[in-house]
């Protein structure tokens, strides 16, 4: 396949963030802030209680994603935003092909920690053992990364270039 230039680690972590936001947003009793709303705070030195007030949230999920070869580790922590106090933290590790199941485990643990009662359908959805093709998953995450970067591009030609890169990654994922 073709090699396109990008920050692979950042794209992978951002893609996992997007997927986790999507999983959490499917839980009817949670109000989840969009990725666009939270990205402005990435690397921002503002105190957590101030960020929470601005976003009107009770809790924040922070974490890291580390990929090494065919393995992935997701570390997540739930923070009571107003008090900047850790409520819960855990690490999930597995094969890259198990990434969807790992994400589901994180989402379910967060729901359990904030005492959300999941509907039977939500429990079933977050309990499925789903395998993915690691190469397809990575290509998909690269495509999503390129799409998110479009708004930051300064010129129309750079935006078109990002769209074309995203399409190439999505086609690679489909293969």
What can you tell me about this protein's structure?
The chain has 175 residues and is of the alpha+beta class. Helices cover 50% and strands 18% of the residues. The protein is built from seven helices and three strands, in the order H-H-H-E-E-E-H-H-H-H. Helix 1 packs across helix 4, helix 1 (8-25) crosses helix 6 (134-149) and helix 6 packs antiparallel against helix 7 (156-174). The longest helix has 19 residues, at 156-174. The protein is globular, with a radius of gyration of 17 Å. It starts with 7 loop residues before the first helix and ends with a helix.
Which tags fit this structure?
alpha+beta, three-stranded antiparallel beta sheet, 7 helices, 50% helix, 18% strand
Lateral strand order in the biggest sheet = 1-2-3
The whole-number mean of residue pLDDT values reads: 78
Fraction of residues in β-strands:
15-25%
Uncertain residue ranges: 1-7
Helix segment tally: 7
Radius of gyration over alpha carbons? 17 Å
H/E element order: HHHEEEHHHH
Q: Could you give the count of β-strands?
A: 3
Structural class: alpha+beta
Helix content: 40-55%
Shape: globular
The major pleated sheet works out as: 3 strands, antiparallel
Intertermini distance: 10 Å
């Amino acid at each position: 396949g073709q090699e396109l230039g990008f920050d692979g680690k950042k794209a992978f972590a951002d893609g996992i963030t997007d997927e986790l936001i999507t999983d959490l947003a499917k839980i009817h009793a949670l109000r989840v802030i969009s990725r666009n709303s939270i990205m402005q705070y990435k690397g921002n030195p503002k105190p957590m209680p101030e960020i929470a007030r601005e976003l009107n949230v009770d809790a924040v999920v922070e974490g890291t994603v580390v990929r090494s070869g065919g393995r992935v580790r997701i570390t997540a922590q739930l923070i009571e935003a107003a008090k900047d106090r850790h409520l819960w933290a855990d690490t999930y590790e597995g094969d890259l092909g198990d990434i969807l199941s790992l994400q589901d485990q994180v989402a379910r643990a967060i729901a359990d920690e904030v005492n959300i009662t999941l509907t039977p359908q939500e429990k079933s959805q977050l309990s499925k053992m789903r395998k993915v093709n690691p190469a397809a998953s990575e290509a998909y995450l690269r495509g999503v990364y390129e799409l998110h970067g479009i708004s930051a591009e300064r010129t129309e030609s750079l935006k078109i270039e990002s769209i074309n890169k995203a399409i190439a990654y999505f086609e690679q994922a489909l293969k």
